[in-house]
Amino acid sequence: MRFGMVALEFLPAVNRIVEGGIPDFARFNLPEIVRDDLQIKHIEVIEITMDTEKLVPGSITAERITELAELKDELGHSYTVHLPLWSIEPSSFNDFIRKASVESIVSSIRLAEELEPEAYVLHTTGSLAAEFSRLKLRESLSLLLAGYIGSFAETSLGEIISKSEIDPRKLAVENIEFPFEVTRDAVDKYDTGICFDTGHVLSKQSGEETLSEFYKQHRDRIIEIHLHDGSYPEGGRAFRTEHTALGQGEMPIREFLLELHNDNYSGPLVFELAPDEVKESLSVIKREAPEVL
């Protein structure tokens, strides 16, 4: 099995840029960060977060992408790309916002092409859709509202594929805080892949399935897995956790990883964690399911 990690999570990025309360973007060098991450044993896939292009000026340019591609030739790893998700809403009923979101995503696809990513992870809905999905409505009305929001997301997905001319199977539509049964309709319509986020399932953001149930139901489309722990305690949504190191939540680690291993899952498993948490998680895997390393 092939493990990977996000090149840099948000807080580590801030800590790298800000020193003594003063930001210095020159301290942020993405190829150096990738090289450092690949020193972690068992890491052979790096996910590039394309929001970084806007968050850290000059961090992801055409020249930087070429450097990252050359680094791949040197070190032999592969890339996945997480398309923009911060401040955009592909499922917005405001067409100005929706179309701008599509353009942002298409721009990132074109910028990252030289990396030849295994997958482009995509959120087809954003924070507005998540906010609506939290409303306490009767089930029939909740599904009606989700379907309405999902129709805008579906339109955006079609436009992203058309405008970027990407192979739809390279798009990994992620299960996020929105009913995935609605999102799956768009996946099937446009023949895309799926990014299976374990923490989002464990914290019941996209439905009520267990990890095994979600995997079995969607295995035909899963091309990437976001690997992190999570929980949904008795207190409910207000107390749920996600993006924690393996062993810190409710993941049945050995059972789940062996299911993937025995099923010959060949896509990347990308830790959405800080480097120290990645190392901690790999130590847990070595203890609980050494066969998969």
Computed over alpha carbons, the radius of gyration is 19 Å
Note the overall shape. Answer: globular
Strand order of the largest sheet: 1-4-5-6-7-8-9-12
Instruction: Provide the number of structural domains.
Output: 1
Q: Mean pLDDT across all residues, rounded?
A: 94
Give me the CATH fold name. TIM Barrel
Gap from first CA to last CA: 6 Å
Q: Return the CATH class.
A: Alpha Beta
Structure explained in plain terms:
It is a single chain. The chain is α/β, with parallel strands linked by helices and 293 residues long. It has one domain (2-292): TIM Barrel (Alpha-Beta Barrel). It has helices at 10-17, 30-37, 52-55, 62-75, 95-112, 127-133, 139-164, 180-190, 198-202, 211-218, 253-262, 275-288; strands spanning 2-6, 18-19, 22-23, 43-49, 78-82, 120-122, 171-174, 193-197, 222-227, 229-231, 241-244, 268-271. An eight-stranded parallel barrel has the order 1-4-5-6-7-8-9-12. The chain has a two-stranded antiparallel sheet with strand order 2-3. The protein has a two-stranded antiparallel sheet with strand order 10-11. Helix 5 (95-112) links the parallel strand 5 (78-82) and strand 6 (120-122). Helix 2 packs parallel to helix 4 (62-75). The longest helix is centred in the middle third of the chain and has 26 residues, at 139-164. The N and C termini lie close together (6 Å). The mean pLDDT is 94.
